[in-house]
């Protein structure tokens, strides 16, 4: 029996190409989910234009409008609460979520990272990979825990890294893999196929 479509809040800080890939996959019936709200911390984020095109409500919550990170995150929680999201999908959201926020959505926050975790967490992951001289890199979809890109890994994809690569050329090679991998991982999540045991993600038949 198919379960009800998951109600998803997308958090993004920028261009929103992952958000768009996921939205389109939902529209095409490839993911049993519905984007109920988009939240961004950047007032000029391109993802806002996308949300407008989709007819999905979008909210800007600026960090500088709040005295503390706790108040900022409470404001984000207040913004999404009326939409009653089942899960939160981070799609190029460039801030670390705090423990209070994460506890409220335990194992219900997914993230995409442009490297093969646990290598190269944090910012400029593609640049870190180029600098390290690794010969393969890729992307990782994972559940979010309180660490920096340390949560249980759902799915990864690999791309080659060439000696001539720059942060930008590698990022461009990884991005299409991000879109594909995030779609597959989110589809499994929305079908309730992911089980976490001792930090390892198992996929149910
Ligand atoms: C993507 O490459 C994503 O993996 C990365 O930001 C980009 C957002 O692109 N996320 C992180 O680095 C998170 N630490 P998009 O806005 O086009 O999806």
Write structural notes for this entry.
There is one protein chain. This protein is of the alpha/beta class and 205 residues long. It has a domain at 6-112 and 141-150 and 175-195: Rossmann fold (3-Layer(aba) Sandwich), CATH 3.40.50.170. It contains 6 helices and 9 strands, in the order βαβαβαβαβαββαββ. It has helices spanning 17-27, 46-54, 69-80, 99-104, 125-132, 167-190, and strands spanning 6-11, 33-40, 58-60, 87-90, 109-113, 136-143, 153-160, 194-197, 200-203. Helix 1 (17-27) runs parallel beside helix 6 (167-190). The chain starts with 5 loop residues before the first strand and ends with a strand. The model has no long low-confidence stretch (mean pLDDT 97). The structure holds glycinamide ribonucleotide.
Can I get a quick summary?
The protein has 205 residues and is of the alpha/beta class.
Describe this protein with a few key phrases:
binds glycinamide ribonucleotide, two-stranded antiparallel sheet, Rossmann fold, globular, alpha/beta, about 200 residues
Task: Name the ligand types.
Answer: glycinamide ribonucleotide
Major beta sheet, strand line-up: 3-2-1-4-5-6-7
Please give the alpha-carbon distance between the first and last residues: 14 Å
Shape: globular
Order of helices and strands: EHEHEHEHEHEEHEE
């Amino acid at each position: 029996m198919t379960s009800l479509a998951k109600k998803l809040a997308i958090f993004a800080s920028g261009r929103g190409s992952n958000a768009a890939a996921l939205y389109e996959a939902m529209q095409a019936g490839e993911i049993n989910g519905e984007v109920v709200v988009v939240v961004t911390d950047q007032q000029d984020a391109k993802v806002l234009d996308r949300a407008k095109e989709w007819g999905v409500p979008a909210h800007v919550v600026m960090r500088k409008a709040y005295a503390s990170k706790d108040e900022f995150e409470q404001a984000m929680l207040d913004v999404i609460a009326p939409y009653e999201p089942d899960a939160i999908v981070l799609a190029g959201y460039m801030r670390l979520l705090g423990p209070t926020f994460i506890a409220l959505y335990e194992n219900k926050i997914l993230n995409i990272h442009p490297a093969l975790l646990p290598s190269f967490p944090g910012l400029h992951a593609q640049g870190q990979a180029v600098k390290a001289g690794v010969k393969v890199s890729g992307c990782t979809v994972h559940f979010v825990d309180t660490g920096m890109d340390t949560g249980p890994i759902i799915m990864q994809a690999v791309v080659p890294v060439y000696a001539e690569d720059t942060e930008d050329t590698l990022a461009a090679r990884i991005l299409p893999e991000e879109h594909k991998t995030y779609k597959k991982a989110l589809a499994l999540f929305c079908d309730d196929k992911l089980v976490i045991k001792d930090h390892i993600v198992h996929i149910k038949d």
